[in-house]
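Lab notebook, bench 4. We co-purified these components, and the gel suggests they stay together. Before we commit to crystallization screens, I want a quick structural picture of the whole thing.
Request: model the full complex, all chains together.
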Amino acid sequence: MSTLTLAVKSIKSITESSGLGSDEPYVLVTAAKLSGVIPQLEVTLYGPWSDVDEGETHGTLVLPKQLLPEDTFAGQVVRQPFWGLDNVNAAPIAHPDEVVFIVSVMENDGGDPHNLRSFIKLAAIASLAASSGMTRAVRVRKLINDIGGIMGTITGVDFDEPVGLRELPLTAANLVPPAAKRNTIPLIIRGGSEGSFQVDIEFVFNN
Amino acid sequence: MSILTLAVKSIDQLNDSTEVGSDEPFVLVTAVNLSDIVPQLEVVRYGPLENEGTFRHQLFWGLDNKHAAVITDPNDVVFIVSLMEKDDGNLAVSRIIVKMAAIGSLIGSMGMPRSTRVQNLIKDIRFAMGIRTGIPSADDSVGVHELILTPTDLTPSASKKRIRSIDFHGGKEGSFRVNIELNFE
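Here is the predicted assembly.
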C-alpha cells in the first residue's frame, strides 16, 4: 500500500466577490480518519492570500520537510500536507471510505483565520463524536452541516464571510499511484456573492 | 420497544416579550441516544417562526433526521428542548455551539447516573445559549426543559400519533408552548 500526502497546491479565483477591492480567500481543510473507534482529525489552514483578483491563480510554497508544519514562511502560504494528519509525513489510505476531507473556503475581512480553524476543529470533533456508530454518509452529511454552521461565527472585529464548503470526493482510482507519482484534483466551490474559487488538491505518492 | 419519530410540530405564543415588535422564537432540540458507550447526539433547530407561524418540518428523532428509530427504554434517550428569542445572533452558530457543549457535557459525565448527566447537560446547554453569536443584540434565552418520556408515551396510540407539550415561561422574554409530535410506525 502506498503512502501519500495531500495538500492544497493553489487557489484560483473564478469569479470575484461582490465586495469592494480584491478578495482575500483562505482555505480550511478538515481531514479525518474514521477507521478508529475515536476518529483522528486535523484542520489545516491555507492562506489568506492577499490581492486575489478574478482569473488569478495563487500557489502554495513547497518547504523542506524539516521546516514543517508551518502555515506561512517569509509571507508565503505554505503547502503543508493536510494528509498525513501530522501535517508533515505521508500516510497510507487503505480505502477511500476510511477518511473524509472537507474543504472550506472563506473570505477574510476582519476575522482571525486561526481562531476559525480552532472553532472548526472543535465543531468537527463534536460532530464525529456525536455520530459514532452511524453510517459514513450520515456522518459526512452532519459534519458538513456542523462545519458550515460554525463558519459563520465571529472571530475578530468583523465577520469573515463563508464562501462554501464541500467534500473532496475520493475513489479507489485516486489512490493508485500514477507514473509521475503525483496528481491534482480540482475542487470548485461556488459562493454566490462571495465569489467562486477552484482549489487544486495535490496528491504526492511516496512509492 | 417502539419505532417512532419525534419532531416539533408547532410553537404557540402564550405571552409577548417586553421588547418592541414581534417575537421571533426558535427552538433547539438536543436529542441523545445514551445506550452506547459513546453517546450519539444531534441538535436540531426549529424556527424562527415565519409570518404564517410555520417552520421547516424535520425530525429530531431518529438521529439521522430522516428515519424512525427504536426507543427500547425511555432512559436510553434524552431530549432537551431549548427556546430562544432571536435578535442579531447567528442561528447556525448557536446550533453548533449547543452541540459542542452537549457532546462535551456527555463525554465529561460518562459513568455518572443518568439524572446527573441530564442535570449537567441542561446546565451546559443553558450556558452555551448565553454565548453571543451576533452583534449588536445577542439572542435571548427563554428557557431549557427536558422532554421526559414515560413508558406510556412510548406505547402507540390508536391513531399512531401523540402530542406532548412543554410550556416555557421566560419572564420578560415571553411565554411559549412547544408542541412535540410522536409518530409511531
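Chain A has a mean pLDDT of 93. Worth comparing against the SEC data before the next meeting. The interface with chain B takes residues 37-38, 122-123, 126-127, 129-135, 138, 142, 146, 148-150, 152-154 of chain A (CB under 8 Å).
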